[in-house]
Specification:
Elements lengths: L2 H21 L3 H5 L9 H20 L8 H4 L2 H5 L19 H5 L6 H21 L8 E4 L2 E4 H31 L1
Antiparallel strand pairs: 1-2
C-alpha cells in the first residue's frame, strides 16, 4: 500500500463510518444542541465538509472561494445557505461565528448534506490520486504557513476525527437526556 492509498483508505473509513452513524440517527438527534451555544450534529457535518472543501480548494489547489465546491457546484443553493463573508477570514465554515451567526445556520436536509460531504471527500481523493510520486512532499501555502501536501491532508483528517468524536459526544449526551 502506498502512502496515498493509505490516506485514501483512512478518508474512506471515516466517511463510511460517519454515513453509517448518520443513517441511524433520528431527525431530533441531528438538530439537538447540548446547550444554546453548542453545535448540533447537522451543523458539525456541514462544518467538516466545508473545512475539507476549503483546504482542498484554497490550500491544495491554490484557488479562491468561488472555486470551492460549495459555490462552484451549487451546494450553497442546494443546501439553502450562503456562508460567504461569515466567520474567520470570511470563509463561512463555522470557525469564528458569533452565537447569532451560528443560530442562523439552517437545518440542512440530510440527503444533500451527505452528498456535499461525499463530493468534498471525492475531490480530495481525486487530488491525491493525481499527485506525482513526490506529490505528498510538495509545498502548499495556506493561512500564513507553507507546509507539504501531506501536512495539510493530515491536518484536515485529524480535524475530521476530532469532529467525529464530537458527534459521538453529542449523541451520548442526547441519549442520556432521553433516558432521564
Amino acid at each position: 500500500m502506498t502512502p496515498v492509498e493509505m490516506l485514501i483508505d483512512l478518508i474512506d473509513f471515516n466517511a463510511d463510518w460517519l454515513k453509517k452513524e448518520l443513517a441511524e440517527m433520528s431527525d431530533e438527534l441531528l438538530v439537538w444542541r447540548p446547550d444554546p451555544g453548542a453545535n448540533n450534529i447537522n451543523n458539525t457535518v456541514w462544518h467538516v465538509s466545508r473545512m475539507l472543501d476549503i483546504f482542498q480548494t484554497r490550500f491544495l489547489d491554490g484557488k479562491g472561494q468561488e472555486d470551492e465546491l460549495y459555490f462552484a457546484d451549487g451546494w450553497a443553493e442546494k443546501l439553502g445557505y450562503d456562508s460567504r463573508g461569515i466567520g474567520m477570514m470570511g470563509m463561512g465554515s463555522l470557525i469564528g461565528y458569533t452565537a447569532e451567526e451560528m443560530q442562523a445556520i439552517p437545518t440542512f436536509a440530510m440527503e444533500p448534506l451527505v452528498a456535499y460531504f461525499d463530493a468534498t471527500h471525492e475531490a480530495t481523493k481525486a487530488f491525491l490520486r493525481a499527485l506525482p510520486a513526490d506529490g505528498l512532499q510538495q509545498m502548499r501555502k495556506g493561512f500564513s504557513a507553507e507546509q507539504p501536501v501531506y501536512a495539510w491532508v493530515r491536518h484536515v483528517y485529524l480535524d475530521e476525527v476530532r469532529h467525529l468524536g464530537e458527534i459521538l459526544a453529542i449523541q451520548s449526551m442526547w441519549q442520556r437526556q432521553q433516558a432521564e
